[in-house]
């Protein structure tokens, strides 16, 4: 049986017989459901609605759309973990992790993540809802979230620092309304969402006085860590090797090895031998250059002459275009397992992102149907898979340092990174590099961990990795909750 409760606190303006197309500043629809997770029945409520963003005078200037899943057979809410989930972009809705990763319902797709018809959703037997409640949040202009005050400046929302500040304030309000201050709390962010949650970890603790147990970084950005020059070039090579291995473009001796064995070898070469050659630049000897070109070709699947023409600095865009050029295909940016077809084989980059087109194919109809037909939320506002958030103020991105501060000031806090080996937008090796560089002292490294998966940016689209990555979150939550009575001290 489903129970629906609707609260609408904003009076919709009416012109003639037609309503203006506006979203309610505050609204709520509650339905009840159940799902089988890891073989056990889990009853839950789904609250979908909007909650205001206020200005300094306490007036609503925007509203954020959210979906909150709460297990209903739990008596002790104080010890029940709460996971607060954000996607990235910036400008991306929460749909991706919501309908494909941690939520109780997921897309109907094949085991490798490709669209199938009829579109729709099904139960997620791997959801983390058995161990934690989850709220999926849509920042301004994503999903159904919108600016409601026409006088409000977009600069209040659209920037690294602004985004972190107003979302942290919003989370404070939600946690208070939901009576979850005593719960162990976790932030999870994907892609640009990792910049967001890394910054929010410090903002929540320092300015909202809300302390966390964990931060999960899914396919993280560079998070403000500098890696220009030789490091930037060398950090591409392990991803190139992973993609070339997947498409069987490596020499037979490498192709016969397991992916992780190949990547260990390539990572060692990139750090220990390739960076020194690149650092020498024009002063590297011909022998050193030739050896570097040979090894780059061996690990990337590209021709030596092409690498020479690029002075060893092969851009991602060219790699996506060239790796399978001889077959008449490009490879995807966010997930290089996906192939595309261009107008012509010539050129310096693909015509389109094959993987993103595939994902929008399956996600867009599913999320629109799901909110209306299963969760009972109806509105004429368009669900923005990607919303207008430009110009985005990228100044002040120091999120890795913010995360380090949050770790230092909270002995309970732990961080886990999750990355797909075939992600070319936020590569797994750059994710490792983030982890190495976040705390140069090494005093916090025992609280940071890395998990890799044999898929791309949204590694959970592959059925095997969906199970594995959710289980990794379960273990992370379990290991980041200290025994009762354990003091937070060094």
> Beta fraction of the residues?
15-25%
Q: What kind of oligomer do you see?
A: single chain
The general outline is globular
Helix proportion range = 25-40%
Structural class by secondary-structure content: alpha/beta
CATH superfamily of the largest domain: Alpha/Beta hydrolase fold, catalytic domain
The level-1 CATH class of the largest domain:
Alpha Beta
Number of domains: 2
What's the CATH architecture name of the largest domain? 3-Layer(aba) Sandwich
- CATH topology of the largest domain, by name, is Rossmann fold
Radius of gyration: 23 Å
Number of helices: 14
End-to-end C-alpha gap: 50 Å
Low-confidence stretches: 1-17
Mean pLDDT: 94
Largest pleated sheet? 11 strands, mixed
| Record field, number of beta strands | 17
Describe this structure in words.
The structure is a single chain. By secondary structure, this protein is α/β, with parallel strands linked by helices. It folds into two domains: 6-225 and 360-479, Alpha/Beta hydrolase fold, catalytic domain (Rossmann fold), CATH 3.40.50.1820; 230-353, no CATH class. The chain has 14 helices and 17 strands. Strands 1, 4, 5, 6, 7, 10, 11, 12, 13, 16 and 17 form an eleven-stranded mixed β-sheet that branches. The chain is globular, with a radius of gyration of 23 Å. The model is unreliable at 1-17 (pLDDT under 50).
